[in-house]
Every structure is written in structure tokens, then in C-alpha cells.
Specification:
The chain has helices at 2-9, 19-34, 56-68, 70-92, 97-102, 107-126, 159-163, 181-187, 198-212, 272-280, 299-303, 305-320, 329-340, 349-359, 367-372, 386-393, 400-415; strands at residues 132-135, 146-150, 168-172, 191-193, 221-223, 249-255, 287-291. The chain has 416 residues and is of the alpha/beta class. Strands 1-7-6-2-5-3-4 form a seven-stranded mixed β-sheet, with helices on one face. The radius of gyration is 24 Å and the shape is globular. The N and C termini lie far apart (58 Å).
């Protein structure tokens, strides 16, 4: 059964006979499978999450655990954090930032890093992540220098960094200055990136390539290729940074199969403190991590990192059973910008742009004006119908994108 799975996904860790012939067979099988990938694009906004809390029993349980369990958990978590931070300071004593970037830790420093990761794992236990279910086998750093984790949901995903070694994560440069956590991130020898600095991006790519192809004993590079947190309704476009080295990658899937989703942290939704509170007042938070077989890139994928990223995303979406979408981290930045300058309906900004492009609309088609010119729209008395909306825009009324665009502007008009 395992061999069959490897053949259909085009990946595998067992190699018989000629390595070159076997790799060619892997790539051929994968290409056949990729033809089955649906081309339909998903337009549900992946950056919006609503934490529904309408169960009275859950409210009573949360109130009870807030009083009788939460204080103890907070104390234990803080103790673990202080111990881990102390160990990280000891392990990094006498090591410069330049040495951390250019040379892997060894000897007692590397062993102490493993102990530090175990303390951090205990922190997650006290945080309600008592049992992490795993499926599949993690590949060695030599076999897969890069681990690709998706979907990226929340800060809780950092448990992957702890469980995998710890691994060297690609992190925002700002995280280095975080109290306690900054020193712990440093100890994992991350690759820092400044998202707003184009030169930093090129430097980061160069460092990823050097580490992934290095003969030295670097920890595996762990990357969340989406680049930002989503609500798991789809996989947004992968950033190609992890794929520039052209080395084998192990895709890893993360799931949180809980009745109440208290972990998803997106651009619009519950803030970090609310999610922490709700998670710490759960008896148990379920998390599943699945290691997929190592993905060996074809020669074409090695030459084209964007193609490599696209194909790995298609594979992971298929295994997760969710669609892909053409949203990117830039869409998230756009919504943030719109919100910061107090423009209305920031959450709809990226959706409108994509739906308009799908329908082939240009700047002359002002949907908001069409809705505003009519009498107030209600569910009971619709003065502007979908058909009339579509007719004035000269687009098909039976298109899903037309209906979604119509609903957005009708909703906005009712809020005025």
C-alpha cells in the first residue's frame, strides 16, 4: 500500500537499482498525477476567521476552567519558558550573530539545544497540546534538507519547529527582538528575512540555497511557504524561496481537528490573547502532523522554482482535500493597508479585485454605484436583482463570481 502511495504522488524514499532511473520514474508518475489536479480556483477569503461561540455548555466549561485551570497552566508555561530561555542563553554564550548565521552549532551547544526543545515541548503540553498525532516518517536532513509545512494557521504551528529537531525556521527579522522567544528562535539558527526589504529577500534566498546544499551538519530548514496565516479553507500561493535550491523537499501537513477552532489566527478574526485564552481553557487541543513522502524535483522544476512550488502546493492540497486559491501574502498586506487608512470594507478588497479580474471587468464598471442608485436592498424586498446587476455590468448572471461580487456589494450597501 505504501509503495502504491509513493507511485501515485510521485514521491518516495526507497530507491532500488539505478537512482537516476528511479527518479525518472518518480517524476513521470507525478506528472501523470498532476494532470488530475483540479484547475478551479477557490475564492473564499482565507484571511478571515470567525470564532463562533454559541454553545452554553462550552461557555460554562470555559468559565469554570478559567478560574480553576488557567492560572496553573499560565504559571507552568511561564516556568518552562524561563527555563528554555535560560538554556538558550547558556547555549549561545560566546557565539556571535555572524557565527550563528555561517556555522552550524556542534558539541554540547547542539545537545543542549535538543534539551531546550524538550522543555518547549513540555510548554505545549501545559498549553493543552497533550498528544500530537503523527503519520508517516520524517526524512533525514541529508535526504530532505528542506521541510515544507502547510497550511500555516497560527503561532501554534511553531510546535513543528520544536518537534523536528529543532529545525531552522525562516522567520521575520522582527521576531529576533521578541522577549524570551527571540533568544529561543536565535538558538534554532534561523534564516531571517525582512519582508519589506527587497535586498533582504535576495540575501535570504542565497542563504537558503547555501544551507540546503551544504555538506555541513546544518539542521533541516523548515519553511511555511504560504508566508502568512490562513483559515485552512484553501492553500494560497506558495512563496518560491524554499524551492530555489532545487533539492528534495518533504511536504508536511498540519491539521487541528477540534470541535471548536481556537487556534486559527488570521488577518480578521480573534486576536492572539483571545485565542490563547480559549485554547488554554480546553481540556485538550488536537493536532495532527502528517509527513508525506519526500518530493524529488524534476529537471524542469529545478530550473523553475515557481513551477516547483506550484506542483508541491497542488500535491499538498490534494492530500489535504482542500482547493487551491490564487491569494497571496500581498493580498493580506493590501487588506491591512486599506484597514490602516480607514477605508471601508477592507476584508472585501482582495476578493473584489480577484472576482473582477475573473469576470473581465475594468475600472469603468462601478458595482457599488449600481447598488447605491437603487432603493435599499433587503432579503424580503430586493429592488436590485442579481440578473439586473449582471445585465448592467454585461457579465453572465449564472457565473459564481458574478453572484459573489453581487453579494459583496449588496452587503456593503446595507452597511451604509
Amino acid at each position: 500500500m505504501m509503495e502504491e502511495a509513493k507511485a501515485t504522488t510521485g514521491n518516495g524514499v526507497q530507491k532500488d537499482g539505478s537512482e537516476e532511473d528511479n527518479t525518472s520514474a518518480i517524476v513521470a508518475n507525478r506528472n501523470r498525477k498532476q494532470q488530475q489536479q483540479p484547475k478551479k480556483i477557490h475564492y473564499v477569503n482565507p484571511f478571515v476567521h470567525k470564532l463562533i461561540w454559541d454553545d452554553p455548555v462550552d461557555k460554562v466549561k470555559t468559565a469554570f476552567l478559567t478560574v480553576f485551570l488557567l492560572p496553573f497552566r499560565v504559571i507552568l508555561i511561564f516556568v518552562c519558558l524561563v527555563i528554555a530561555w535560560t538554556l538558550a542563553n547558556i547555549g549561545l554564550y560566546g557565539v556571535s550573530r555572524e557565527e550563528l548565521r555561517t556555522k552550524p552549532l556542534s558539541g554540547w551547544r547542539r545537545q543542549l539545544r535538543v534539551v531546550t526543545a524538550q522543555v518547549m515541548r513540555l510548554l505545549f503540553v501545559f498549553g493543552s497540546f497533550n498528544l500530537i498525532r503523527t503519520k508517516g516518517e520524517r526524512a533525514s536532513p541529508k535526504e530532505a534538507p528542506v521541510i515544507c509545512v502547510a497550511p500555516h494557521t497560527a503561532f501554534y504551528d511553531s510546535i513543528c519547529v520544536i518537534l523536528f529537531g529543532p529545525s531552522a525556521v525562516v522567520a521575520k527579522y522582527e521576531t529576533a527582538s521578541l522577549p524570551f522567544f527571540g533568544k529561543l528562535i536565535d538558538y534554532a539558527q534561523p534564516i531571517y528575512v525582512c519582508r519589506e526589504d527587497p535586498n533582504s529577500r535576495q540575501t535570504t534566498i542565497k542563504e537558503i540555497i547555501e544551507r540546503a546544499n551544504s555538506k555541513e551538519n546544518w539542521p533541516q530548514i523548515l519553511i511555511f511557504p504560504e508566508g502568512t496565516c490562513t483559515n485552512r479553507t484553501s492553500l494560497i500561493q506558495f512563496k518560491p524561496g524554499a524551492f530555489y535550491p532545487g533539492v528534495p523537499i518533504q511536504p508536511v501537513l498540519v491539521r487541528y481537528p477540534n470541535k471548536v477552532d481556537t487556534v486559527t489566527w488570521t488577518w480578521e478574526g480573534p486576536d492572539a490573547l483571545q485565542l490563547l485564552w480559549r485554547t488554554l481553557t480546553q481540556f485538550h487541543t488536537f493536532c495532527e502532523i502528517e509527513f508525506l513522502p519526500v518530493y524529488y524535483p524534476s529537471e524542469e522544476e529545478k530550473r523553475d522554482p515557481k513551477l516547483y512550488a506550484k506542483n508541491v502546493r497542488n500535491l499538498m492540497a490534494r492530500e489535504l482535500g482542500i482547493p487551491i486559491s490564487d491569494y497571496t501574502f500581498d493580498d493580506c498586506k493590501l487588506m491591512t493597508f486599506v484597514k490602516n487608512i480607514n477605508m471601508p470594507y477592507a476584508a472585501f478588497t482582495a476578493d473584489i479585485d480577484k472576482l473582477r479580474k475573473t469576470l473581465g471587468l475594468n475600472k469603468l464598471n462601478i458595482e457599488e454605484q449600481i447598488v447605491a442608485d437603487e432603493a435599499k436592498f433587503t432579503d424580503e424586498n430586493s429592488y436590485l436583482t442579481l440578473e439586473e446587476f449582471a445585465r448592467r455590468l454585461n457579465v453572465p448572471a449564472n457565473e459564481e463570481s458574478t453572484e459573489k461580487l453581487f453579494r459583496i456589494f449588496v452587503r456593503c450597501a446595507n452597511l451604509i
